[in-house]
Amino acid sequence: MKVLITGGAGYIGSVAVERLLAAGYEAVVFDNLSQGHRAAVHPEATFVLGDLRDKQAIDDLFEAHEIGAVMHFASHTLVGESMQKPFLYLGENLACGTNLLQSMLEHGVQRFVLSSTANLFDAPETVPITESETIRPGSPYGESKYMLERILKWLEKTSGLKYAALRYFNAAGATAERGEDHTPEHHLIPLILQVALGKREKISIFGDDYATPDGTCIRDYIHIADLADAHILALEAIETGSRTYNLGNGRGFSVQQVIETARQITGEKIASDIGPRRPGDPAELIASSRAISNALGWKPKYPDLTQIVQTAWDWHRQHPDGYADD
Ligand code: UDP
Fold first, then answer.
1. What CATH number has the domain spanning 188-219+251-318?
2. Is 188 in the pocket of ligand 1 (CB under 6 A)?
């Protein structure tokens, strides 16, 4: 089966392509390269440069390729940016998602996997967070994904769409050939590794007065290969019913623990200081993956922070300037 991967030149999408190809699927990547990198696209995938704001371009894509299913990663994804520029999220993320859904349904394609977010759960009542947690989007970004999830439910009723939505936290780590390269970089692990590489002076810890054992925020770092495999499992289960799962490592690590792990792995000092809290950061976010594990047998292959940081370090050492293609 041929799978269309929107955002297949991005961090998570490019690894999904890699794993889909390894699992015997064909892959068509649609990406405007605003965040992604041409060099991240697996050479065996078909690459189409295009923009989801352009419905005609999507229609052309479905006419040119016999697509059997869609994995939708292309999106604006920064919580902080969404607070500054809400319409990029509440407008564009929605418009791009609905353009894609409308076009695929018009072309008889009914299988859809949404890359959703754990930013649906601001201030969760129970940690690890299960699917029964009350949904309170933490930002226009989280709201845009939640609105897409609700659109999927309607399209299942009105148009026979079959979907899976996966809500996850901090994608991290790398495969041998694909890793994290954002400009500008906002994410903790690549920032720490840039300090180790001498490309950045220090890492600033955003607050050490949270109600956690060492005072720094706890997050659920999940390896991108594990994430990609979950998307494939979810796709393969769609025939038996639409589904929505939380996805995480099940274990949380503090910012201090991540920095300490990186010091051990890289052998570098990695200077750090304590800065102010970042607005919107909850103290602790950990997902329960029990539902997807029970239903689909998903189990992270890289649950240890050491493995996650080691794979990221291997990639960053080999690609000190990232993909260096733009
Ligand atoms: N963080 C930090 N310093 C940085 C970047 C991130 O202390 O320069 C913290 C951030 O406050 C959060 C964790 O690291 O608690 C992970 O942040 P990231 O931006 O990687 O992912 P997010 O949790 O926002 O999805």
1. 3.90.25.10
2. yes
